Amino acid sequence: MTTPLIPAQQTLTPVGIDWEGWQNWLGDHVDPAWRPGEWDQDCWLFTGDLDSPRTAAVGCGTPGCRAILASRGRCRSCTRAREMRGLAWEEFDVQFIPSARPRGSDPALCEVVRDSVRCGRVGIVAKLCQGHVRSWRRHCRQQGRRLTIDEWVDAFDIKPFPLPPECSVGGCWNRRISEKSPVCAYHQRRWLAAGHKGTANTPQLRRWAAEQPPLLTAAQFSLVQLPPPLRLELAYGIQQRDVLGSTMQPFAMRAIVSAALATRTSLLLAADTLQRRMRTSNEKSVLRQLTWSVHQGYITFSGHDLRGEDHFDLRAAGLKGATRSGRRKQLGGVDLAVIPQPWLRRILKRRAEAEKPTGPAFRRWLRSCVIAGQGMNRLPGGGIDTAALDFAHMQAAFDEIAAAVDQDGHRYGAGYRIDLWTAFCQTIDFGRLAGLLDAPGSFIRRPSQRIQDEDTNEDELGKAIPEHVIRQLDAQLASLGTGVTYGAMDLAHVKAMFQTAYVVLRDSGRRPLEVVSLPRNCLERERDEVSLIWNNHKGRRMRRRLPITSSTVAAIEKWQALRDTLPDAPSVSEPYLFPAITSAGGSDHLMSNNFSAGMRTWVGNLETLVSDAMDSEGNVIPFDRSLIYPYAFRHSFAQRHADAGTPLDVLRDLMDHDDPKTTMGYYRVSLERKRKAVKTLSLMVTDRHGTATHCSSTSYEQRSVAVPFGGCTEPANVKAGGHACPIRFQCSGCGFYRPDPSYLPAIEDHANSLRADREKARAMDAASFVIDNLTAQINSYEDVAAKMRKRMAALPKDEQAELEEAAAVLRRVRAGGDHKLLPLTVVSKNGS
């Protein structure tokens, strides 16, 4: 067929389509020599190579079974047969008997044999071909009895027919019924089933045969029945998928071709209709890629996009996807018409083309422009005319973003709204610098337009998973990875890999990407210490070292030994501890999202997972499973060390942070714990002589902010926030000094510092009153500390433990900067 198809839907498109030119362009760009051995353009037939990694088709794992699958495994027939027999796979493989011939292939040859020569036609009725069965029946009627085939052949000197030629349907391996028929028995049945009559070699039958596919295996698909433009579009699309590195999917292509046969129109017009006919996500993904390739081809051919100037193709613009390779696995396009202002659409589009952000970053840019555009659209004129833009439009954009809500009507978090406002302002700045926005100077961001972060709930313990929940997870760790398919990897190996990754994540506190990308030789030994070698991708600091426990080392070594025996690990994963799912997956190692998905499935399927709280009836409340995700274990790691009293600078190094403030954001002391600690320690306050001086928790709070070695009740010093001591912080000699056990480490450190100062003073030959003063301070501090420790030692063991825990809590509060100074205002003498 050479006549181009002119779809009826052409009138629905915004521009006319030169169908003949488009068809000729496709014909010039479809390579007939593409994939030799698999693609036959003369028959428009693709036959997948089961041994090729570029084709998603493999044979059934049962020896002798002819079934073809999309991935490694066993077909349904073999699985059901094995289950019915109750056999192990090894026993089933031995007993399996394959079918005599493939489905749809020719029956056995006609049984007429003469002089050792067998008839070449296929047996249709009573194991005889059509020609011989008619002759046999005629002779049986004449003889008045049923003749055996041998009697009939001998009595009437029956001659066998020669072997007929192959079926005229392209790619069909069957023989024709006879020399007079152009088709085989299979296609003869299809011809008659279509309502046609007669099987003689007529022009109508020959034309029909030229447009028919052969009997297709699961690894094949044919485009021969499609009209020329659609056939060429699909051929062009599948060849472009090869250029992009995608794997051929024969199963998905068969579904796409079937749906295309029903529409019989161009992909340029029927993509949405075909998408609705797809049943699986894989079929939809392949069709999206084909459609994208065809649209890009049409843009190259015609110079314009049928989807309109406001359609922005992310992949064509070179935007990066979520994979580390940068290749978008899911094709995407957005309609910029959701932004009310045309000038803002153009700026956003040009900025994306110039800066090529990641997909998530572009979505944030787009969201910021949509919300800001809606705000400006509420003003007279809608912000369409750039010459009329002023401060009111910028303020409207700010107000809209500051009040932005999600689909459920909940206001976005302050951090996300700050990101949206920043993204919008950067887009405006880009427009000015690129000469795309000629707006008045009043249309500019003002310092007053700032989104403030709301006060957080002090009773929140952060994102750390409680230790009692982690213990429950550990007790059920054996089920992690159950039912997870991971390429060609054995299920037992998948479970071992996921469980090892969990152990490393739990014990090391590394980010999920840092765990899944661990090098294969990630353990370094120095004497009795073992360190984990890891890469800080976020901070761009490679080959970092982290001391780890022996149990973590044992888990890693066990997986390393198993990792060395993996038979089907992708070659690109050779340097990594946790291999990738496939060589063509866009990542050289286990991907974070794959690990996260496996963990979510595991946590969701756990039978029990309880919190430490109870309802009003005394029943234990189930733990919220949505709070368990890989990154939360990093917070748990920080919280665990903070609770154990690890100094802030040490914990900062363990977390590999540059700024201690970042580390402090990973753990939190709740207000409830702080209040309990204050109440406990307020009963242990002493004066400078070590004499108990009880006070209320409110009074304790007031003094605890004043000085570094204890509380201070001197009014002027308290009003100044602890920076106006009349005797220059010689606290141990002051009557207003009120220490408590939480300051013991600071007191002892200060006493040691004073000793060092005294030795320096002696070396300097300082006056005796200087040395005497230092000695007196040392003695007084030691006396206070000794009396506090004596009081603590006299308490019962449980009270001592409670006191030490309370002291540790308040020390963390002070180290973390949580404790704020009193909101006092200095008032001048004249009252102003």
Describe what you observe in this structure.
With 832 residues, the protein is mostly helical.
What's the gist of this structure?
The chain has 832 residues and is mainly α. Helices cover 44% and strands 6% of the residues. Residues 1-15, 322-329, 455-461, 702-706 and 818-832 have low confidence and may be disordered.
Keywords:
29 helices; elongated; three-stranded antiparallel β-sheet; mainly alpha; 832 residues; single chain
How would a textbook summarize the main sheet? 3 strands, antiparallel
- What oligomeric state is this? single chain
Number of helices: 29
Strand order of the largest sheet: 1-2-7
Low-confidence stretches: 1-15, 322-329, 455-461, 702-706, 818-832
Question: How many angstroms separate the termini?
Answer: 97 Å
Pairing-aware structural class of the strands and helices? Answer: mainly alpha
Residues in helix, %: 40-55%
Q: Tally of extended strands?
A: 16
Radius of gyration: 40 Å
- Mean of all residue-level pLDDT scores: 82
Beta-sheet strand percentage? Answer: 5-15%
Identify the overall geometry: elongated
